[in-house]
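Replying to the earlier thread about multi-chain prediction with a worked example.

Input:
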Amino acid sequence: MAQIKPVASRRQILTGLATAPLLLVIPNLAQATAAAVEAEIKKLYGDKAIGSGKIKLDVPQIAENGLVVPVTVEVESPMTDADYVKAIHVFADGNPLPGVVTYRFTPASGKAAVSFRMRLAATQNIVCVAEMSNGSLHTTKSEVKVTIGGCGG
Amino acid sequence: MTGASGLGSLGRVAAQQRLTAEQILQFDKLGSISLLYLTDIHAQLEPIYFREPSVNLGIGESAGQPPHLTDKAFRDYFKIAAGSADAYALTAEDFTQLAKNYGRMGGLDRIATLVKMIRAERGADNVLLLDGGDTWQGSWSSMQTKGQDMVDAMVKLGVDAMVGHWEFTLGADRVKEITDKAPFAFLAQNIRSLEWQEPVFAARKSYEKGGARIDVIGQAMPRTPIANPRWMIPDWEFGLREAELQKEVETARAEGADVVVLLSHNGFDIDKKLAGRVKGIDIILTAHTHDAVPDLVRVGDTVLVGAGSHGKFLARLDIEVRQKKVAGVRYKLMPVFSDAIAPDAEMKALVETIRAPFKAVLSREIARTESLLYRRGNFNGTFDDLICQAMMKERDTELALSPGFRWGGSLLPGDPITFEAIANATAITYPACYRTTMTGEQIKVMLEDVADNIFHPDPYFQAGGDMVRVGGLGYSIDVSKSMGSRITGLTHLASNKPIEAGKSYAISGWASVNQNVEGPPIWEVVEKYLSQVKTVRIEPNSSVRISGT
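Result:
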């Protein structure tokens, strides 16, 4: 096959795969689990009851780029001295460590809404917990699929 | 709404010589508007053979429902006679023999004839012509001219609006260069700039036709950055954007639209689910999954159209509007039998001009085939088997992977394999045929991942396309299982031994979505192989065992 240019290096061989390099290294990564996320929440709030509702979590069903997955979290609240959101915690049950980020708010924040991008190596759940000024807790979660792609019709 | 009429009476016309353009066009007109639709031409300017799939599985609620019907089940459902012109156009049954009887299909000059006759019948001001995308990719001339050949032809045809998918593999700059000056609208409500979430293209355009206002909303292939190289469109974000679509529909209605049309490259199953969730769309013109469906599919008050691919069909919908509402839709999927329709002289001349610079290259005969070569099918096609054989030989690997593309023409036994035929199955802008090694575990993970993109029970997680084709490798697949447990029994065919998880295998493939992939273009690899073997004979592929259907 003299006319066919050989592949130059191992790095290029790997990037030449139809498979995303990320996926190939997953088996070697320690991963958090749903239980680890639960334990982390317990560390913060003990056995306190956690309700649903109030949180709008906007993530793609399928990540277009696992390295920068857009996440938007908004918690419904008047954000007054009497009633505001104190904190938003974000967890990922496939992250090496379950805790991703915590945002803290005061009534002066105006609204409890954050947008950020996070890296996801594989399909997993994004879990949000919101702590309100009256001490009540709310949670929601959403799965984000990370795929190697290719082969579109 | 009034009923659909399907293909009409063509099924009773036994012999090809009795088929006429008048019969193909015969239509009991309704209302004041005709909407014409064609999609997924994949840059085929001239008539070709295109065999529909004999395996096209539906999962979950889609099982056994159109478009997931093939051959006899398809004919029974739509009441089509075996051996008829309709059976030839719509199924894979007895394809070789019927192809000899009924000839090639498509050709933009034939389509132009049909469009002109309908415009003459209805009045040009009452006809809207829409293109579902995958128009600028799929041939040597489209690749060499960066889509310009197809743009020129579609301008000549008088397309009013289009959407995109493979168009984006020309790169963001080229797509913008074309769409900024094109006389047709390029619509996409679901593409936003990554940084600021601003619209990249217009979402919607309004047309006054037949005394009514028709609003067309565009929906680009939502998984383009995953299914195709994201690095070619680095600043754009896609996705379904259902909530934004709902808002766009409501805005259209509030502004006075009588008819709301979604020109969608989502794929049929996604659109079927979407039709039940997004309210207020009258008509969804589906694309991407290449389904030719001879009747309308209804979901609530929305009708879905599947108009096939490669120029084989032109869909006509007559729409009756009463009190600013759609009161009736009548439908016909017109098969473009190239031998029955006289070419339009102007379009024929344009196609000849476009193809002239490439004539010598395209007509070069490399080999002959003794077998029917085709692409479509969920798991394999003989053309892909040929491509895998070529890669394994020319890149000296024990295994090969070929993407499950649904485009590319078919060749009949005895046909020459010209360079054009190779290009029709391989012409993409990321053609490098790579050589690498993968462990058995990596191969399994990769097959599971691709299978989940096709057989996920929730259509919103499906990406279109078919299963990646494998050379030198056998496996069993249970399509009813979930991700990670569909694929079993991976076998190294040459040694008839199981693939070992920890062992490395030399593997070749093409169409990687990653950047800076090295290797010769796939068409060179296939041509080199064919020029040595000269005669192609592909035995039926039994290395993929399917269950759970």
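The longest strand of chain A covers residues 124-132.

Feel free to reuse this layout for your own posts.
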